[in-house]
UniProtKB/TrEMBL annotation:
SUPFAM superfamilies in alphabetical order: MFS general substrate transporter
Keywords: Membrane, Transmembrane, Transmembrane helix, Transport
Name of the protein in question: Putative transport protein transmembrane
Main localization of the protein described in the UniProt heading: membrane
PANTHER family linked: MAJOR FACILITATOR SUPERFAMILY, VACUOLAR BASIC AMINO ACID TRANSPORTER 4
Record's GO cellular component terms: endomembrane system; plasma membrane
Source species: Paracoccus denitrificans (strain Pd 1222)
Gene3D superfamilies linked to this entry: Multidrug resistance protein D
Molecular function terms, GO-annotated: transmembrane transporter activity
Amino acid sequence: MSQSPAGPAAPVPASAAPAAPPFVPMSWPATLGYIGASITIGLTQGLAQGFVSTNIPQIAGDLGATTTQATWLMAAFMIPRASMPLLLIKIRTQFGLRRFAEVAILVYLAVSLAAFAISDLRSAVAVQFFAGMASAPLSTLAFMYMLEPLPPQWKMRLGLPMVLATVATGPMLARVISPALMGDHGWDGLHFMALGLAAVSLGLVYALPLTSAPRVKVIAAMDLVSWLLIATGFGGLTVAFVMGSLHWWTDADWLGWVLALAIVALTLAVVIELHRKAPLLDIRWLVSPAMLHLTATLLIFRLVLSEQSSGAPRMFQVLGVTQDQLVPLFALISAATVLGGLALIPFMKPERVPLFHVIALVLIAAGAFMDSHATMDTRPAQMMLSQAMIAFAGSFFLAPAMMRGLLSALARGPNYILSFVIVFLSTQSLGGAIGSGLFSTFINHRQVLHLQVLREELVAADPLTAAEIAQRSMALAPQIADVAQRNAQAVAQIAQDAGVQAYVMAYNDAYFLTFLVAAAALCALLLHLFRDWLAARIKPLSSSTPTHSEPKT
């Protein structure tokens, strides 16, 4: 047998990667240790994201920047999060899971230390960009540590709901603990918390090593080219939708250029991948009817869940509710998210996925409809039930959808897992940014319309308006002696209340729109299930009908 000349090994497609090592049962203490490590690492990643998005106004004050400028911190954190996992899967295969875990957590610890060197907005944006890049592997590690000790039959049924609920709980839990951390030490309190979690995660990663499959060279030069184009496209979309509603779409020319660059980059990536023998992504499979249906399902889910991440917190901010007053609400939301994941465990089976989605959409639609009746007097206590329903539905929806996608990818071969992962991550990361941007844009648009109508109704000659001005002027008499100043102050208060009322009406419109979208998705799902039921009933009848041949003459 002749040997091939020595040289660098050619990259192998993911399908040629060796199978995972056989499962070896662990002791109960070791199993609980790995599950605890998964929860710790997942919360470390989720809190890192939540600390930024939750405290933008306070961080802006610490940095001497406006809230709009400080929003770049959130954009910088999210830019690498959308595309990094795509490359990390191949890095993990080529360099080994154990080394990947150790290096990833060390890099995150280094970035957590670098956060203490922040001195202005520019340095903060740079650190947040690297923090987003360094935290991207943590989600993967959380999955790996949750699945590592579980037998194969429990990986999807127990591991998947638990780890997804853990990762989803992090941003909400950040709203629970942020007021206490920010109150005493400002932004440094958040940095100390992130650093402490990173140090604990580092110890867990080294104490509880992951089982590694044999390393295989799977990274090709064109993989890096495609990834850079995808990263550019995803990053551009993230920036546009995070900042678009703040600068307003038609008032900032650079938003159009960013969107154009993103579209061109993604188009080039698709063209390159379609002409490769071993592509990074299987574009043809991604545009198949089944995958398009799954992508649309996941995207709609992320859009309707924007009601919780971008709706209630910002509406309460407009109503003057402080972060401390929101702690009980988000503690309940965090608990409901965990309960949603736990409730799936006894019933998690592929054939029950449509039922889970029906239940989730009913809960989301009901919760959004309840929220659409908010007033200026609404406080967190009045929205606890509705927000808990939506949070429970979020966990109840996501894990079954991911299980169905993973099983579909595995049925076609290991190389399709990477293609599914990019669909899942793009709909979650990009879907979250797009949903938040569209939600905020819709609210701003409706607020302007409602405010215009309210101003037309607030005419000084109107008896009701005149009576309200007189009543408020009398209430101000002990503080302001001059009658003209009192009347001017009363008019200013009425105008301010009109602005707040316009925002509340706009949020109600957004909540009701969320209800309509969830209800439409529910109707579409029920029609789809009815069609499948009819097809299953008709097929046996048609197959059992005897065929009569023509008699021979």
